[in-house]
Amino acid sequence: MFDYLIVGAGFAGSVLAERLASQMNRSVLLCDKRPHIGGNAYDCYDDAGILIHKYGPHIFHTASPRIFRYLSQFTGWRPYEHHVLAHVDGKLVPFPINVDTVNALYGTSYSPAEVEAFFARVAEPIKHCRTSEDAVVSKVGRELYEKFFRNYTRKQWGLDPSELDAAVASRVPARTNHDSRYFTDEFQAMPLRGYTRMFENMLDHKNIRVLLNTDYREFMNEVSFREMIYTGPVDAFFDFRYGKLPYRSIEFKFDTHDREVFQPNAVINYPNEHDYTRITEFKYLTGQEHPKTSVVYEFPRDEGDPYYPVPRPENGELYRKYKALAEATPNVRFVGRLATYRYYNMDQVVGQALATFDQIREATLDGAAVTVAA
Ligand SMILES: Cc1cc2nc3c(=O)[nH]c(=O)nc-3n(C[C@H](O)[C@H](O)[C@H](O)COP(=O)(O)OP(=O)(O)OC[C@H]3O[C@@H](n4cnc5c(N)ncnc54)[C@H](O)[C@@H]3O)c2cc1C
User: Fold this and answer.
1) Which of 3, 62, 144, 260 could pair with 26 in a Cys bridge, judged by C-beta atoms 3.0 to 4.6 Å apart?
2) pLDDT at residue 341 tops 70
3) What is the pLDDT of residue 369?
4) Which residue of 231, 333, 352 sits with most ligand 1 atoms within 8 Å of its CB, as the best mutation to test the pocket?
5) Which helix or strand (DSSP H or E) is residue 333 part of?
6) DSSP state, 335?
7) Which family does it belong to (predicted)?
8) Rg of the Cα atoms in the chain
9) Lowest mean pLDDT among 66-75, 156-165, 169-178, 281-290
């Protein structure tokens, strides 16, 4: 008998397995249908010996000291600040848009104050930003929207920005200064020996048993456990009772080149050409030195592994129906990106898992207090 069956060995499942095992001495069976731990953050060495991220580039960043401290128990870090270039009008320019982007595109030499005035001139006043198109044109105007956002979004989501919630594009800032970092969080770093090694260290505990290549449904009725933590897709758990929650997927095409460097930056976005959205060169992220280099091209798709919940109001409605079912299901907690149908960064999923652990512990302490009082 296990105390917990945890479905999914990504961040959500692994953090909870680690906490329950090490802090509450609970026995955990952690299963994943994939042949590896780490979920979408899994990394591995390719045939050339280069460390790649199998499910696309994963860059760690967080504003939370608690989350950074927690993960630091299982890995050292390599300081890394992420920068992205976009290929627009035949030039490679910083993205998110900043003063240098505007100057490079228009041959101007605006100062930060002047670029602010430029944005104010070109921005279209929109009272209630409903869609992603509204969110961008109200900040930087229609021309920059067309150059950087419109086609990229259509490729990425298979939808026009006018069909997507404002929240999608609102995540990308427009800056008036020279800051070309993609993220501005206080903690930005990559796990020193990779994500998979970090997960191995988390799960190396006598109370944790890991079962790979196994869908939980295959053995559910043969193994006994007290509680379940489920981090897979919430609609699949309920046999798609209300229909499928829409996801956007990505096909990854990896390539190794017989030279040390392939492109001048870790990530180059291609908003307006090609079927792929971006190319990532892994050695920039990992700091690995190697005479060859590996890159990945991302081709967004409708079909495939569920990666990005599609943020549209009707999908939120559908999710709320599944959420009600989840809340009414005893002895199962739904945690993580797929189980709560939200696009979360890795640190947010770690935060969600740590908060779930706190709830479990508090409930246990309350239970113990009641027992003692009785
Ligand atoms: C292309 C891409 C790039 C990203 N880049 C970044 C980034 O740069 N920075 C960042 O912070 N975040 C990034 N993310 C987000 C990050 O991947 C997630 O926040 C994180 O992996 C979520 O962890 P999770 O445990 O919730 O889900 P997952 O990692 O998806 O883990 C869920 C696991 O459950 C397993 N599972 C599902 N169903 C079953 C079943 N029936 N039986 C057994 N196992 C099952 C799956 O196989 C999977 O391994 C990116 C995501 C994508 C798609």
Assistant:
1) 3
2) yes
3) 54
4) 231
5) strand 332-334
6) -
7) Belongs to the UDP-galactopyranose/dTDP-fucopyranose mutase family.
8) 22
9) 169-178
Is-contact 315 246, C-beta < 8 A?
Answer: yes
> Which residue is it, tokens 């989501």?
157
Which residues sit with their C-beta closer than 6 Å to ligand 1?
Answer: 7-13, 31-34, 39-41, 55-59, 215-216, 231-232, 250, 307, 336-338, 344-347, 349
In this structure, the number of other CB atoms found within 10 A of the CB of residue 302 comes to: 10
Domain boundaries, the chain: 2-81+188-368, 84-170
> What integer pLDDT is reported at residue 13 of this predicted model?
98
Give the closest residue to 100 by CA, choosing from 90, 88, 115: 115
How many Cβ atoms from other residues are within 10 Å of residue 321's Cβ?
A: 15
List, for residues 97-121, the tens digit of each pLDDT value: 999 999 999 999 999 999 999 999 9
On whether the CB atoms of residues 248 and 304 are closer than 8 A, the answer is: no
CA distance readout (Å), 347 to 40, 202, 235, 344: 13, 15, 24, 8
Q: Which residue, 278, 277, 273, is CA-closest to 88?
A: 273
Which CATH topology does 2-81+188-368 take? Rossmann fold (3.40.50)
Per DSSP, 40 falls in state: G
Q: What is the pTM of this model?
A: 0.95
How close is the Cα of 12 to the center of ligand 1, in Å?
8
Task: Please give the C-alpha separations between residue 144 and each of 133, 241, 360, 361, in angstroms, as whole numbers.
Answer: 11, 43, 48, 50
Res. 170: pLDDT tops 90: no
Tell which residue, 331, 349, 368, 339, has the closest CA to residue 4: 331
Contacts by residues 103-106 (CB-CB < 8 Å, ≥ 24 positions apart)? 105/147
